[in-house]
């Protein structure tokens, strides 16, 4: 499956599909995204920081094969990468999310901020039609439903409309930093 085809899939289903990929396919999803970012207007420090992600992915195939076995290594790299992004590059949570928590293509806005175009945002992929957002009920899902977000990083997007909540779902990998964390919840509208 190509990266473009993968990005057409509803966001809630992406972790399950990502898990079915080979380690090489998982790596390619992210490498292609970061290569795209390298074509944007970047400072030298920003470029080196994105190149660090590509290097990390290329050198750590096993992390994409068995993320559970390397959780600590992944968490340490994610922490260091994120801290540098926030403290040196002055990227906020939204920019960081758009780069490493969502595989969607990133563009730059008029202020050179890295954004995901609105038609690719999480709220669009979960089903806005006629200005109304389709949501799950607050009841527990059937036990066969796979989790779709990580409650530790709340990877339901940066719009503030959705939040990741624990629920009785099947935990799978494919959430968080580069989709290498366990999915342990579902995205809900904050106003419900």
Describe the protein in words.
Strands 1-2 form a two-stranded antiparallel ribbon. Strands 3-4 form a two-stranded antiparallel sheet. Strands 5-8 form a two-stranded antiparallel ribbon. It has 8 helices and 8 strands. It has 192 residues and is α+β, with helices and mostly antiparallel strands. Helix 3 runs antiparallel to helix 4 (44-59). It starts with a helix and ends with a strand. Mean pLDDT is 82; it is low at 120-138. Strand 1 and strand 2 (114-115) form a beta hairpin. The longest helix is centred in the middle third of the chain and has 17 residues, at 71-87.
TL;DR of this structure?
This protein is of the alpha+beta class and 192 residues long. It is built from eight helices and eight strands, in the order αααααααββαββββββ. Helices cover 41% and strands 13% of the residues.
> Sheet with the most strands?
2 strands, antiparallel
Shape: globular
- Mean pLDDT comes to 82
Q: Tell me the distance between the termini.
A: 35 Å
> What percent of residues adopt helix (DSSP H or I)?
40-55%
List the strand order in the largest sheet.
Answer: 1-2
Query: Which oligomeric state applies?
Result: single chain
Beta-strand percentage range = 5-15%
Say how many strands there are. 8
Q: Could you tell me the radius of gyration in angstroms? A: 16 Å
Task: Give the structural class.
Answer: alpha+beta
Query: Uncertain spans, ≥5 residues at pLDDT below 50?
Result: 120-138
Count of separate DSSP helical elements: 8
Order of helices and strands: HHHHHHHEEHEEEEEE
